[in-house]
């Protein structure tokens, strides 16, 4: 064996038999521990390898590691023994780049379309029907996803504890706050279930004639198929109880029309609080759990919250 061959083998062994292919930049830390910038969060490594496997390639053909210079970046290496063709490497790049392109389309903004079913209003009050006739047949707006909001559910026992000024334990609720690009002429909205392609909702409105509230059935559609699926499958509920929990907030934010509400994603364990306030450590823990709960529901939440391959921002070929 020549000296050149021995040297080539030594280089392969020292490099771990992998050649760096790309640098993947994310919008948050990809490490398993913020105090350890070497160990990668397995969510990222597992999902990258799953993406490779979905392309019909062996997941062992790639290796992922945290960039030593940036804890928000991953170095993707190719095994020199896998002998991936240029077409296969291009397929991996294309699959990753599709994530970046879809994310850059601003996943936080979704078109909302509400078809009002005025003929299904249940009322014998002529003033209510006059108000129904005044409303348009359809309402449209852009829906913008803001941030997660964590709240404590309230029961009669919680209210007693609140009045007594003592601490209590309640179920923690995970919600995602949203904002409409324009006010719609209703005060509250609730989700009643879904069918293929649209969700049944009930809108609450106060008649402009006699100031009495009545309910308006409607069909809700959104421009994002993934988001529509979350609504149709009732994996989340529409609520105004958190963002509008205070009367003054409701008046200041929504005025005479609905513009702010939230999607309730369910419970995230229990939280100890006093007067519905908790300490800073519990707050951070619950918010982290809520963000990951949102991410686990998939897109568009996974583009914005928690840990997943969808937090990918940029790809740099090496």
| Percentage beta strand | 35-45%
Order of helices and strands: HEEEHEEHEHEHEEEEHEHEHHE
- The tally of beta strands, per DSSP, is 14
- The radius of gyration over CA amounts to 26 Å
Question: Strand order across the biggest sheet?
Answer: 9-10-11-6-7-8-13-12
Into how many domains do the coordinates divide?
2
Major β-sheet annotation: 8 strands, antiparallel
Class computed from helices, strands and strand pairing: alpha+beta
What is the residue-averaged pLDDT?
A: 81
Low-pLDDT ranges: 5-15, 246-251
Q: Please count the helical segments.
A: 9
How far apart are the termini?
31 Å
- Principal-axis shape equals elongated
**What percentage of residues falls in helices of 4 or more residues?**
25-40%
In short:
This protein is 31% helix and 40% strand. With 318 residues, the protein is α+β, with helices and mostly antiparallel strands.
What does this structure look like?
The protein has 318 residues and is of the alpha+beta class. The chain has two domains: 3-105, no CATH class; 109-308, no CATH class. It is built from nine helices and 14 strands. The strands form three sheets. The chain has an eight-stranded antiparallel beta sheet with strand order 9-10-11-6-7-8-13-12. A hairpin with a 2-residue loop joins strand 9 and strand 10 (198-206).
């Amino acid at each position: 064996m020549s000296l050149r061959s021995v040297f080539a083998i030594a280089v392969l062994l020292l490099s771990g038999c992998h050649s760096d292919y790309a640098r993947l930049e994310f919008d948050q830390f990809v490490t398993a521990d913020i105090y350890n910038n070497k160990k990668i969060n397995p969510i990222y490594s597992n999902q990258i390898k799953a993406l490779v496997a979905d392309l019909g390639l062996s997941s062992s053909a790639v290796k992922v590691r945290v960039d030593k210079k940036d804890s928000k970046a991953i170095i993707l290496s190719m095994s020199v023994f896998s002998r991936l063709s240029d077409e296969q490497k291009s397929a991996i790049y294309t699959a990753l780049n599709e994530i970046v392109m879809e994310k850059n389309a601003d996943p936080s903004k979704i078109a909302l379309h509400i078809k009002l079913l005025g003929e299904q209003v249940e009322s014998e009050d002529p003033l209510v029907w006059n108000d129904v006739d005044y409303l348009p047949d359809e309402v449209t707006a852009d829906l913008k996803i803001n941030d997660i909001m964590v709240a404590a559910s309230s029961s009669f026992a919680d209210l007693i504890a609140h009045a007594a000024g003592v601490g209590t334990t309640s179920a923690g609720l995970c919600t995602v706050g949203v904002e409409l690009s324009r006010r719609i002429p209703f005060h509250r909205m609730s989700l009643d279930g879904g069918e293929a392609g649209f969700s049944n909702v009930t809108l609450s409105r106060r008649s402009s004639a006699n100031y009495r509230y009545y309910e308006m059935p409607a069909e809700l559609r959104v421009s994002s198929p993934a988001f529509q699926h979350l609504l149709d499958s009732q994996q989340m509920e529409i609520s105004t109880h958190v963002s509008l929990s205070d009367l003054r907030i409701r008046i200041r934010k929504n005025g005479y029309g609905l513009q702010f509400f939230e999607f309730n994603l369910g419970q995230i364990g229990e939280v100890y609080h006093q007067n519905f306030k908790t300490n800073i450590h519990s707050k951070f823990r619950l918010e982290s759990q809520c963000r990951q709960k949102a991410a686990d529901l998939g897109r568009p939440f996974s583009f914005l919250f928690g840990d997943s391959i969808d937090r990918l921002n940029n790809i740099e070929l090496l």
